[in-house]
Amino acid sequence: MAVRGLEPRQAAEGLSGPRLNVWLLCFALPLVASNPSFAPEAKSYSFGRRFLGLDKCNACVGTSICKKFLKEQIRFERWLSSQQDLASANRTFYEGNYTDDSESWRPVVLSRLVSPHLHDLADKSICKSAGKRKSCSIEAVLRATQRFQNWTHSNLLLPSMVQGLAPPMLRCPSQRLLDRIVRRYFEVADVGSVQMKHFTPKDRLRLLYTLAVNQQPLILQMFPGTEGWPFPRYHGSCGRLMVWAGSRPLKKLYSSPLAQRADAAYQLLRITQSLASNSLRFNLYYTTASEDMFGTVEDGRLLITDASTIGIIDLQEGFHTEGNSQANHSDVFSCLGSSCQQTLPCERVRSSQSFTLLCRHVLPKLLSLADVQSAGLPKKAITELAVCADHSQSDQRIFKAVQTLQDTLQALRPCSNDYGYRYPECKYSDKF
């Protein structure tokens, strides 16, 4: 479990009064120092709250890691320059560093649920839904909705309470999946129960808002890397900013030797396979696939760094559909994220879908005909890659192509100190 930010009561109530001023001052000083054009203290305070999204809580992710910012145990990789304004930049994430002891720092990603522009559009749509033309209390409007009222009167998160929400993992949720969301929700005290009896109204609104806007922080909490899942560690959130462990983008490998690219391609296939077949009997599948979804860490492991487009089917309980759930249950929460497009109904998701998307959009950037011409990659690898990317092929044929491709790539993978994740396989190999 990651280190929690605030004490339970502080997490529930947030920062306020003099402590908020102290915190904002600590956060704002480096910004003012690096950009003399900023106005005096009052504007700096407002800037800090707006940047983090604390002024919009409890329509936010949470406050579990605010204390780390207060102690300066989370810092941006690059502070403000005269050419950069973090508050207005239409950026979703920033590079940063995180520490527990002020001596050893490790890279992290500081990310918003969506870009500031999309957050602004969503906030305006919330006000508009209440008949407010310019501005309003975002929290007050959301609390008055029928959906939130249903949330306040139930101690279980039921499928009917999330119908119409956009995130792919909620397309056909089972009760077992929703219980896991509640049981693993990091932003409340006393996690571990499937019931929400200990959730305050603030906690419920934060969870509902997060589910409506972006499932990324919840996926990282539900399927943590410490339990073997291929996702980075979730550290917590503050306002509308969330923090998870950093990594190197997959595209950094494109110019690397074939052995390193073959290892990454092999890991991608293995990870995709494990998402569909695991001991929890949840089928996690890609609804889209791109290079930006993946990254590598120091020991050579490859992780899924963007889980916002992953769908989930419960293979144990199955799923129940109720026609067009988006049309039947749409409200102000239904389109707060970056995409309001519906994903395929669960019954139409092919078991080979993730492999097809991976082989079509990601693997060709790691493996190419140029590698065959240089006599490093067997030609059959490119042939099977083409079969894997062809959605007109049967599932059985695609799975066969994936297996052949895996066998071919496995022989090309390197054994070296740079691939610590392969210990003890490489430790006792003649090639090490």
Give a written overview of the molecule:
The protein is of the alpha+beta class. The chain has 17 helices and 10 strands. The strands form 3 sheets. The protein has a 5-stranded antiparallel beta sheet. A 3-stranded antiparallel beta sheet has the order 6-8-9, covered by helices on one side.
Question: What profile does the largest beta sheet have?
Answer: 5 strands, antiparallel
Q: Walk across the major sheet and give the strand order.
A: 1-2-3-5-4
Q: Which stretches of 5+ consecutive residues score pLDDT under 50? A: 1-47, 80-84
Number of strands: 10
| Share in β-strands | 5-15%
Backbone structural class = alpha+beta
Q: Radius of gyration from the CA trace?
A: 23 Å
Q: Summarize the helix and strand pattern as letters.
A: HHHHEEEHHHHHHHEEEHEEEEHHHHH
The N- to C-terminal Cα distance equals 34 Å
**Assembly status:** single chain
Averaged pLDDT = 84
Can you tell me the overall shape?
Answer: globular
Helical segment tally?
A: 17
Helical residues, percent: 25-40%
What topology does this entry show?
Elements: H1 8-13, H2 17-34, H3 41-52, H4 66-70, E1 74-76, E2 93-98, E3 106-112, H5 116-129, H6 138-143, H7 146-152, H8 159-162, H9 175-183, H10 201-213, H11 216-222, E4 234-238, E5 241-245, E6 248-249, H12 258-276, E7 282-286, E8 294-296, E9 302-304, E10 310-314, H13 325-328, H14 353-361, H15 369-373, H16 379-388, H17 395-410
Antiparallel strand pairs: 1-2, 2-3, 3-5, 4-5, 6-8, 7-10, 8-9
Helix pairs in contact: 2-3, 12-17, 16-17
